[in-house]
Amino acid sequence: MQRILVTGGAGYIGSITSRLLFNAGYTPIIFDSFANGNEWAIKDFEIIKGDLRNISDISAAISQTKPDAVIHFAALKAAGESMEVPEDYYENNVGGSINLFKAMTEHDVKKIVFSSTAAVYGTPAVFEVHEEYPLKPDNAYGHSKLMVEQTLEWFAKLGKIDSVRLRYFNVAGASPDGSLGEAGKKVLNLIPILMEVAVAKREKFVMYGDDFETPDGTCIRDYIHVMDLAKAHLVALKKLSEFEGTEYYNVGVGKGYSVQEVVAAVKRVSDVDFKVEIGPRRVGDPAAYFADNSKISNELGWFPEFTLEDIVNHAWAWEKGGKLNHS
Asked: Global pTM?
């Protein structure tokens, strides 16, 4: 039974992936600072409280647990915030990752799945984004993730660490059984914001622009269910067991939904006709982009199973049920 150290494992994606790991026969070991994570989400697993910025914390954790591989989620992830406090993003995302890689090499742990992001592409000039699209991040968050990807390329070339880098698109939803979902301290993404509007935690939803060159005038993005994303980490672990080097994959559904379509889905599922206000476009917002996911589908046999309707249904059930039990 493989032991997997999950950094940031108490967070939204990390906790759900840890549960899937356990169900698949792995032993997840959670390493988290709990700055944004929740202990209740991973209470059934071994937990080590630590901060990647302190190399002694992660070195001791790896020495103690002797994992077969690492899944590395721990990071700051708000693109807007990264432009206000870039020093925090480089310290956490880059510095913390370097400490992790150093501890791994010291203790002969050679396999890692890295949580990267579609933000490494910046603002794409095409609708469908494939992995060889130029990497031109336009915020400090995306750049910090790209720096870690580039570091992993060198560790692979030097024969020190083998890696799979997963470039996430827009993650949303909750576990279908209602037990786990997004419960972070900051609500920044579209679907969780809409959930808060639907339960009257917010007065209204502001839609940033309705005059884009799209069928309904609103931005189109690729929304992937968190369970599909979690499953991508399992197939990435299998890939790691079979090869040496580094690989990278987009993880998205391969099609886009407009903001208006998402709003309509939330209104339909919640049966709440909440107020929507049209605001100005945000600087740099592209009209549309979504993942070309053919590489991960063809090479690893991964395919998304859940629809936008599933995402909204599960997110709504979480908002009205499980989340309330932990608020």
From this structure: 0.96
